[in-house]
Amino acid sequence: MNTDNKAIFFKREALKRVVEAYDKGSLETQAYRIPFEVIPPDSKSEVRCCIYKERAVFRARTLAALGCSVENDDEATSLNEYAKEALLRKDVPEAPLTVLDIACKGCVKARHIVTEACQGCLARHCQQACKFGAISFENGRSKIDPDKCKNCGQCKEACPYNAITYVPVPCEQSCPVDAIHKGDHGFAQIDFEKCISCGHCMDACPFGAIMERSQLIDVLSSMKSTRKVCAMIAPSIVGQFNCTLPQLMSAVKKAGFDKVTEVAQGADITTANEARELVERLENGAKFMTTSCCAAWIQAVKKHLPALKEFVSHTKTPAGYTAEIEKQHGFTTVFVGPCVSKRVEGMEDPNIDYVLTYEELAALLDARHIDPATCEEMPLDPAISGEARYYGVTGGVAQAVENAIAGKKPFKKMAINGLDKKAMLILNAYAKGTGDFQLLEVMSCKGGCIGGPCTLKKQAAVIKPIKDLVANSPKVPCALDK
Question: Which CATH number fits domain 111-167: 3.30.70.20, 3.40.50.360, 3.50.50.60, 3.40.50.300?
Answer without folding.
Answer: 3.30.70.20
